[in-house]
Write a structure and sequence with these properties.
single chain; 111 residues; 6 helices
Length: 111
């Protein structure tokens, strides 16, 4: 982690520990490292594999769409929007509003 702070942000981690960098900023930088495929911290927490970038996921999903088979390298622990109850509730409310609007259009109430 110390090397990652120096490499990616140009600050020694000791500056965070000693209070020269605000704690909230240090935590924010650390969280950013967790999602950086080139960071050592991310690799250690991901069984020594680089975390996938959005482009990697999109490419794997295109491959899946073209072949009809799941991409063999696609991580098995992919978090889906449906697994988040709050997100799914938002999607359900939006779909309900859409259906209501379509009903009102079909009845001629709105155009």
């Amino acid at each position: 982690m110390r090397a990652d702070f120096r490499r990616f942000y140009g600050i020694p981690f000791s500056d965070v520990v000693r209070g020269r960098v605000p704690l909230a900023e240090g935590v924010s930088l650390f969280v950013d490292l967790l999602h950086n495929p080139d960071a050592s911290v991310a690799r250690v927490l991901n069984d020594d594999e680089a975390p996938w970038r959005i482009g990697d996921y999109l490419t794997a999903h295109v491959w899946t769409a073209l072949t009809g088979e799941k991409h063999p390298a696609l991580p098995s622990n992919v978090k889906r929007a449906q697994s988040d109850p709050q997100r799914q509730a938002q999607v359900n409310r939006a779909l309900e509003r859409k259906r209501e609007r379509e009903r009102l259009i079909a009845e001629g109430v709105i155009t």
